[in-house]
Write a structure and sequence with these properties.
about 140 residues, Jelly Rolls, globular
């Protein structure tokens, strides 16, 4: 009978030890996950608030765009909220009506304008962007 109590005690200790070890491994794996908010905005870079998302069936689009050095994109507008993350290079965005400009470098995020004519220009090196569009199915991403 004494051996039965020893066996039960060993089983309990082993079970508790395994549970603790599993918890530590799980906690260790979770500790390597990091999250950093790059952008949270209800307005575009020029300070104008976003009014609403487009109606219709939602469609997210993510593009990787490379703009050559010493280039200017055509003047354009976007019909939906979107944001650009600069992977590399430098990009200067400009509003057509006011001439207001903002320069971004690698690692920065830009909340784009909706419905306002603007363009991007690069300097001595190409700019590589990841652009996230929150539109509706069938909606163009930009318009001249």
């Amino acid at each position: 009978m004494f051996d039965v109590f020893k066996l039960k005690a060993v089983r309990i200790v082993c079970g508790v030890s395994l549970s603790l070890l599993a918890g530590l491994v799980g906690a260790h794996n979770q500790s390597i996950v990091e999250s950093q908010t790059l952008l949270r905005s209800g307005a575009s870079w020029d300070g104008l608030p976003y009014v609403a998302y487009p109606s219709g069936s939602p469609e997210l689009t993510v593009l990787k765009i490379t703009i050559p050095a010493h280039s200017a994109l055509p003047w354009h507008t976007h019909p939906m909220p979107n944001a650009a993350y600069v992977l590399s290079g430098e990009l200067t965005v400009e509003k057509k009506d006011s001439g207001e400009k903002k320069t971004l470098v690698a690692g920065q995020v830009l909340p784009e304008m909706v419905g306002a004519l603007h363009r991007g220009q690069t300097g001595d090196s190409p700019a590589v962007l990841i652009v996230f569009y929150a539109g509706a199915k069938g909606m163009p991403l930009s318009q001249p």
